[in-house]
């Protein structure tokens, strides 16, 4: 049976964790039992995901969004106490991989979203190379692209800009990367896809003639952790199960 440290060392090495400056610790965040036969995966280490891991009898919960973000209070109270208490009660390891799991050229959220949507990455740029620039396989209207996203992700995107225009050059970054819109425009993107939208992007889309599609933070970030789970299954012969939740954001 695989050990916690073998699995984590493989993840760190594969995802090249040491190369990233991140907002939360990557790797093990809460320590549990040593031997791992079953891994539960989820986008976020929510209370519901922890309870699912316990019900499933998993020894590890592996997520994209762990805990201990820099913006968070450091005290272990309230909801955070409840999450940690549940992990400790069931002796479940909780490990998170954030930016390394966005960026990985094969297993990453950005690469996996492109694979799902049939987009081709030409290059990456911007902060820590997280912004992807590429082309649609065939040019289509932004409205058709939005419909394609809705169908494949199971969630209607929030759109800004003129959706009747035909687009081909695309920029994308999964999650809360609305701040990369300007960089995507500077790189010549006609349409930019990310997980969230803020007030300013509506105006930027209208005033530059580009299209902004907010396809959901959770919805755009399911696929990296699923790809990582598949890779772990192949490498360590562990069982993996995925917890999805209907997060509208
Ligand atoms: Zn995220």
Short recap of the structure:
The chain is α/β, with parallel strands linked by helices. It contains ten helices and 13 strands.
Secondary-structure map:
Blueprint: E1 2-3, H1 4-15, E2 27-30, E3 35-36, E4 38-44, H2 47-55, E5 60-65, H3 78-89, E6 93-96, H4 99-103, H5 109-117, E7 119-125, E8 131-141, H6 142-153, E9 158-160, E10 166-172, H7 181-186, E11 191-194, H8 199-208, E12 211-214, H9 217-220, H10 223-236, E13 239-243
Parallel strand pairs: 4-5, 4-13, 5-6, 10-11, 11-12
Antiparallel strand pairs: 1-3, 2-6, 7-8, 8-10, 9-12
Helix pairs in contact: 2-3, 5-10
The structure holds zinc ion.
Write structural notes for this entry:
There is one protein chain. The chain has ten helices and 13 strands. Helix 2 runs parallel beside helix 3 (78-89) and helix 5 packs across helix 10. 37% of the residues lie in helices and 27% in strands. The protein has helices at residues 4-15, 47-55, 78-89, 99-103, 109-117, 142-153, 181-186, 199-208, 217-220, 223-236; strands at residues 2-3, 27-30, 35-36, 38-44, 60-65, 93-96, 119-125, 131-141, 158-160, 166-172, 191-194, 211-214, 239-243. The radius of gyration is 19 Å and the shape is elongated. The strands form three sheets. Strands 7-8-10-11-12-9 form a six-stranded mixed beta sheet. It has a five-stranded mixed beta sheet with strand order 2-6-5-4-13, with helices on both faces. The protein is of the alpha/beta class and 249 residues long. The structure holds zinc ion (ZN).
């Amino acid at each position: 049976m695989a050990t916690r440290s073998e699995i984590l060392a493989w993840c760190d090495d594969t995802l090249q964790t040491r190369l990233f400056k991140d907002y939360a610790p990557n790797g093990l965040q809460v320590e549990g039992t040593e031997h791992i036969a079953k891994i539960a995966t989820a986008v976020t280490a929510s209370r519901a995901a922890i309870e699912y891991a316990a019900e499933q009898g998993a020894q590890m919960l592996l997520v994209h969004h762990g805990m201990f973000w820099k913006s968070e209070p450091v005290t272990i109270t309230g909801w955070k106490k409840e999450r940690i208490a549940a992990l400790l009660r069931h002796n479940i390891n909780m490990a998170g991989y954030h930016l390394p799991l966005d960026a990985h050229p094969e297993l990453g959220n950005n690469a996996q979203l492109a694979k799902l949507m049939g987009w081709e990455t030409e290059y990456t740029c911007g902060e820590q190379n997280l912004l992807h620039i590429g082309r649609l396989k065939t040019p289509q209207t932004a409205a058709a692209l939005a419909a394609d996203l809705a169908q494949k992700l199971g969630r209607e995107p929030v759109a800004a800009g003129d959706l009747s225009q035909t687009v081909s050059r695309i920029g994308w970054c999964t999650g809360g990367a609305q701040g990369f819109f300007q960089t995507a425009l500077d790189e010549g993107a006609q349409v930019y896809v990310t997980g969230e939208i803020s007030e300013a992007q509506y105006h930027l889309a209208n005033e530059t003639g580009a299209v902004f599609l907010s396809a959901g933070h959770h919805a755009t970030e399911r696929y990296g952790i699923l790809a990582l789970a598949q890779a772990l299954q192949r490498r360590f012969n562990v069982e993996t199960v995925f917890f999805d939740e209907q997060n509208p954001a």
